[in-house]
Design brief:
Layout lengths: L7 H7 L11 E5 L2 E7 L3 E6 L4 E5 L5 E7 L8 E6 L4 E5 L10 H8 L11 E7 L2 E9 L5 E6 L12 E2 L4 E7 L6 E7 L5 E4 L15 E2 L11 H8 L9 E5 L1 H4 L10 H15 L3 E4 L3 E2 L12 E5 L6 H13 L3 E6 L25 H4 E2 L4 E2 L6 H17 L4 E4 L2 H5 L21 H17 L4 E4 L21 E3 L1 H11 L11 H4 L10 E5 L11 H4 L4 H15 L5 E5 L24 H19 L13 E5 L7 E8 L2 E8 L5 E8 L4 E7 L17 E2 L10 E7 L3 E7 L23
Parallel strand pairs: 16-17, 16-27, 17-20, 20-23, 23-24, 24-25, 25-26, 26-27
Antiparallel strand pairs: 1-2, 2-5, 3-4, 3-6, 4-5, 6-7, 8-9, 9-12, 10-13, 11-12, 13-14, 13-15, 18-19, 21-22, 28-29, 29-30, 30-35, 31-34, 32-33, 32-35
Helix pairs in contact: 5-6, 8-10, 14-15
Length: about 750
């Protein structure tokens, strides 16, 4: 029997090439008659539930249709069908529902002004005309056809083709579909290629190596951090302590069989550890969904989903909530600079360079084998800004650390002469990326008062932390990579050679107050052959530990907020391995215990002494007492607020210096608050102990008074003037610094 010739419209539907399936499928009125048409692959029999109308199959196809009087079938109807496995199904026909996306939402998205695009795109529980289901939507302007596929339709792209709007947004409401289903988008590109993509706006994903998106339920998490958020909005963070513990969740701790721990378990253990040591914040290396463990999260594919490695989105909400209830802020490492080339991800999403640039001179990072966002495209900028707001609002994140800002600022970043394209003025600045960062900071600050945005920026780009209305980028904090590089290069020198490199320590104060700086000893410094912080230190075992303790004392007394990577707080000896866990066992040994005790005391001193944090970003908070004693490798400075001050004195050699005279600004008795060589820290116990140090009216170092102190070897001490009318001061700590000689 000859197969009837199909109309072009039906032929395109059969071949899964139809860009407007609603024009063919569903309920259509024509001259007083109604025609219902359905495409149901794998169906044997189909009928309309309302009226029991049996639908006929168009021969040679999986298209079923019925025609009758105009009032025979209601606007919203259900289909009943039996599949080829003899299973019965009943559900509302997706193709009898009108468009669900609003014109204003679509317009704002097209203009790049929809700051909550995650409420427009992706998959979300939705109700239409009293029927619950899932509304899917995706931006793919160059696609010729997009379908929703999943277990619910045997991953068959013929089953649920979507309708497209004029700006390239595709949508489909699938009624009766519950939360928890896995799905992807099947896309037919302009050249005819058909491929599967995960949802760019997906809220949850399968555990790697699987890559499908998962529909999240619409329920509300019962947050208990209202007081924290209220206080955060009014918090004067500029003049308050901030000490950050940076964590890679997958290698901080694991279960007895090496398995990943749940967010809730991690939260309990982390909060206990961090509170004990006195940190104010936890910074999470990227927990946005990513397929490759060894990327540490920096090659993200799910910009709206916490990774499923550690549990569900609600588990992650519990993590944040638990931290907030215990007074700990949460910072998320966020990566808008680049994205991976994984086939299921954003790369050539609709068959074209959609999120990236077509030209690899603009669109590819060869160093990382990743792609660069096209920051000049409104929809791309919208995607990223919406992601930032999503984490701040939906998950109550307190701050975002923006990764690799330098790579966004410069078109020639890590490129040879012929590998980049100048901007429209002939320069190397990425003007579109600069505009994006300014807009990001303006919007996040206006929408989420109290939230902070930090820049990992490693060059001397000016005004990174200055307001956009003054020509700045608008970030709140900048990682002081120069201070970190100079300090580590200095400390790696043998003490006998340090006298020739004193400028590497003093140089930071030439620019310390040009930006709002954070002093980082991050994961980047303990990986890729760089060795652990402990093993960067020269000398024998005792000297290495002494150097490390001295380094932390210097950091905590230097102007700037603080950050330590996990494991550095107890002097882990091996280089960080993301596939293993920290060497917690070393805390059985006194030298490692001593480092941890010192970090605890430094944190508590830092938080309890306003002189150490009130003016982190202002000149009035710092004064040199003496920075010229290079021969002895000694540095002495003041941290102050108003009339209150502390003296920090550091001896970068293994030679004890007794009777070392220090100039001080006020007369009285001084007492040692912290001594990194103290016996409590497994040091040599050399220092000034509990005795008070009386001033003499002997001008020294440009100060009207002076005291004789003992400077322990490879150690730092912190001194306070004992109040005349108050009990003796207690506690102790030390600060930190920033940029590089070569970078200025």
């Amino acid at each position: 029997m000859k197969t009837p010739r199909l109309s072009p419209e039906l032929q395109k539907l059969v071949e899964a090439r139809h860009e407007n399936p609603f024009s063919v499928l569903g309920r259509h009125l024509d001259e007083g008659r109604v025609r219902v048409r359905a495409l149901l692959p794998h169906a044997e029999e189909v009928s309309i539930a309302e009226g029991g109308h049996r639908m006929g199959r168009i021969e040679g196809t999986d298209i079923f249709e019925w025609e009758g009087g105009s009032t025979s079938v209601p606007e919203r109807y259900r289909l009943i069908w039996r599949d080829d496995a003899h299973r019965e199904h009943i559900g509302h026909d997706p193709y009898c529902y009108p468009p669900q996306l609003g014109d204003l939402d679509l317009h704002l998205f097209g203009e790049g002004k929809h700051w909550h695009a995650h409420r427009l795109l992706g998959a979300r529980i939705h109700e239409a005309d009293g029927t619950a289901g899932v509304l899917f939507s995706v931006w793919a302007p160059s696609a010729k056809r997009v379908s929703v596929v999943g277990d619910f339709n045997r991953w068959d792209g013929r089953s649920h083709p979507m309708r497209v709007h004029g700006n390239g947004v595709w949508e489909l409401f699938i009624p009766d579909l519950p939360a928890g289903v896995v799905y992807k988008f099947e896309i037919r590109a302009g050249n005819g290629d058909v491929f599967l993509k995960s949802d760019p706006y997906g809220r949850r994903f399968e555990v790697r190596p699987d890559t499908a998106s998962i529909v999240e339920p619409a329920g509300e998490y019962p947050w208990g951090d209202g007081d924290w958020l209220e206080q955060r909005a009014a918090h004067d963070w500029l003049h308050q302590p901030m000490s950050i513990y940076e964590v890679h969740l997958g290698s901080w701790q694991r279960g007895p069989e090496g398995e990943m721990l749940n967010y809730r378990v991690l939260a309990r253990r982390l909060v206990e550890h961090v509170k004990d040591l006195g940190f104010t914040h936890i910074e999470l290396m990227p927990v946005t969904e990513h397929p490759y463990d060894k990327s540490w999260g920096y090659q993200a594919t799910g910009y709206y989903a916490p990774t499923s490695r550690f549990g569900s989105p609600d588990d992650f909400r519990w993590f944040v909530d638990h931290c907030h209830r215990n007074g700990i802020g949460i910072i998320l490492d966020w990566v808008p600079a680049h994205f991976p080339k994984d086939a299921h991800g954003l790369a050539r999403f609709d068959g074209t360079a959609l999120y990236e640039h077509e030209d690899p001179r603009l669109g590819e990072h060869k160093d990382w084998s990743t792609l660069i966002y096209n920051f000049g495209r409104y929809e791309v900028k919208n995607f990223l800004i919406s992601s930032a707001l999503f984490w701040l609002e939906e998950y109550h994140i307190d701050a975002l650390r923006v990764d690799a800002v330098a790579s966004m600022l410069y078109l020639d970043y890590s490129r040879e002469e012929e590998e980049w394209i100048p901007n429209r003025y002939g320069g190397r600045e990425n003007l579109e990326a600069i505009d994006f960062m300014r807009e990001l900071n303006e919007i996040t600050h206006s929408q989420v008062p109290g939230a902070l945005i930090m820049a990992e920026e490693s060059t001397s780009w000016p005004q990174v932390t200055k307001p956009t209305y003054l020509g700045g980028l608008g970030f709140d904090l900048k990682w002081n990579m120069g201070w970190m590089n100079d300090t580590l290069r200095y400390i790696e020198h043998e003490p006998i050679h340090r006298q020739y490199h004193q400028d590497m320590l003093t140089f930071s104060m030439l620019y310390a107050f040009t930006e709002n700086f954070l002093l980082p000893f991050s994961h980047d410094e303990v990986v890729h052959g760089k060795g652990s912080m402990l093993n960067k230190m020269p000398g024998d075992e005792w000297q290495r530990f002494a150097n490390l303790r001295m380094l932390y004392t210097y950091m905590f007394t230097h102007p700037g907020k603080k950050l330590l990577f996990m494991g550095t707080e107890f002097g882990q000896g091996t280089e960080w391995d993301s596939t293993a866990v920290l060497d917690w066992y070393v805390l059985d040994y006194p030298l490692h215990q001593g480092v941890q005790r010192l970090v605890r005391d430094l944190n508590h001193l830092y938080r309890s002494e306003p002189a150490l944090y009130t003016h982190d970003f202002e000149w009035e908070g710092f004064e040199w007492i003496d920075c010229h004693d290079a021969q002895n490798s000694v540095l002495i400075f003041l941290r102050r607020t108003g009339d209150d001050f502390l003296v920090s004195a550091l001896n970068f050699t293994p030679v004890p210096r007794e009777g070392y005279r220090i100039g001080v600004p006020a007369p009285g008795l001084y007492r040692e608050l912290v001594n990194s060589d103290a016996s409590d820290y497994a040091g040599g116990g050399i220092g000034n102990g509990d005795r008070t140090l009386a001033t003499e009216e002997q001008p020294w170092m440009g100060r009207p008074y002076s005291i004789d102190v003992t400077l322990p070897p490879l150690a730092g001490i912190v001194l306070r003037l004992v109040p005349v009318t108050a009990p003796d001061a207690e506690e102790g700590a030390a600060p930190a610094e920033e940029p590089s000689v070569e970078e200025i």
